[in-house]
Structures are given as C-alpha cells and as structure tokens.
Design a protein that fits this description.
Elements: H1 10-29, H2 40-67, H3 78-102, H4 109-133
The protein binds protoporphyrin IX containing FE (HEM) (2 copies).
Length: 143
Amino acid sequence: MEQLPGYAYIHPIWQLVTLILGLFLAATALPNVDNPNFRVRGHERLGRIFVILVIAGAVFGKLVAASLPVGTLAIPGHRFLAAVIVGLVVIGSVFGYQGGRMRLRVRTGMMRAHPWFLVLAVALLLAQGLLGIGSRGLRLIKF
Ligand code: HEM
Ligand code: HEM
C-alpha cells in the first residue's frame, strides 16, 4: 500500500473539529429555543465560524481527493452527503439571520426552522465521519 501524503489527513481532522463545534452549538442553543433572552451574540459568532469551517473543509476535501490518483480514497456517498450538508447549513443560516431580524416583531417560521436545518446538518456531519473512516477511508488510520 502506497504511503498517503500528509495533507490527506488534514480534511478528516478539520471536519472532526467542525463536528465538535457543531455539537457545541447545538448543545448551547437548543435549550434556548423560544427563549427571548437568549444571548445571540456569541451564538452568531460561533455559527459564522462553523459555516466557514464546513465550507472550507468541503472544498479542501475535494482538492485533496482530486490530487490523489483516481479512487485512492473513494468513499461511497460521501460527496453526495457533502452537498446535502452544505445546502442545509447555508439554508439554515440564512433562516437564522432572516428569522433573527424579524424576531422582535413576530416569531417566524424561519426562526422555528433554523435549528432543525442545522441539527440535521450536524447529524449528517457525524454520518460523514463514519463514512469517512469506514470503507476505504479506513486506510487513513491503517486499520
Ligand atoms: C446546531 C446548530 C444550531 C442550532 C441548534 C441553533 C439554534 C438556534 C436557536 C434555538 C436560536 C434562537 C431561536 C429563538 O429565538 O427561539 C438561534 C438563533 C440564531 N442563530 Fe442559530 N443555531 C445553530 C447554528 C447556527 C449557525 C451555524 C448560524 C449561522 C451563522 C446561526 C445563526 C443564528 C442567528 C443569526 C440567530 C438569530 C439571532 C437573533 O435573534 O438576532 N445559528 N439559533
Ligand atoms: C467528519 C469527518 C469526515 C471524515 C473522516 C472525512 C473523510 C474524508 C476523506 C478520507 C476524504 C478523501 C480525501 C482526503 O483524505 O482528504 C474525503 C473527501 C471529501 N470530503 Fe470528507 N470527511 C469528513 C467530513 C466531511 C464533510 C462534513 C464534508 C462536507 C460538508 C466533506 C466533504 C468532502 C468532499 C467534497 C470530499 C471529496 C470527495 C470526492 O470528490 O470524491 N467531508 N473526506
């Protein structure tokens, strides 16, 4: 088995950090659903970092996969799920911002939908990790 270049390890570790941040966001925000006193400044800042990490991580994963010989680390379903996750994160975040702007006047459907989109994205991020270390991705950790 040929040696994998060191940079191939960056994407999985990067996305693991993203997953932990996502879980932290969920754990700190979910108890505040419908809480008008929720301190949103920190939530919003961390949320923005999360969005950047997810998208940059996906682009980097793509770049690494493209730089390796075809099929070296092919992970069935991983690319499709990546597109779903990025979509959910983008829609969920737009709903967070739009819903937040209207929040003071009326509780909107967008604000209600916001946590759902992002919790689903975080759950799928976990699934990505399992797909990533499963199948041929296992070679990364030399099982
Ligand atoms: C697992 C992830 C997340 C969960 C569970 C979550 C949940 C929540 C909850 C419960 C609220 C308050 C809703 C209410 O007033 O009832 C909220 C507000 C908000 N969230 Fe998130 N969120 C998550 C991630 C994100 C991300 C990634 C962003 C994007 C930057 C974001 C941006 C916002 C914004 C802008 C608000 C409204 C702030 C305002 O009221 O002005 N959230 N979120
Ligand atoms: C959470 C843990 C994850 C693990 C362990 C993982 C693992 C991997 C591995 C081993 C590769 C092959 C290239 C490389 O080694 O860098 C890869 C590629 C890729 N990953 Fe991930 N990944 C994870 C999460 C994610 C997430 C959350 C996304 C997107 C939101 C993503 C998007 C991609 C994409 C687009 C590719 C290129 C696929 C291709 O073109 O065939 N990954 N991933």
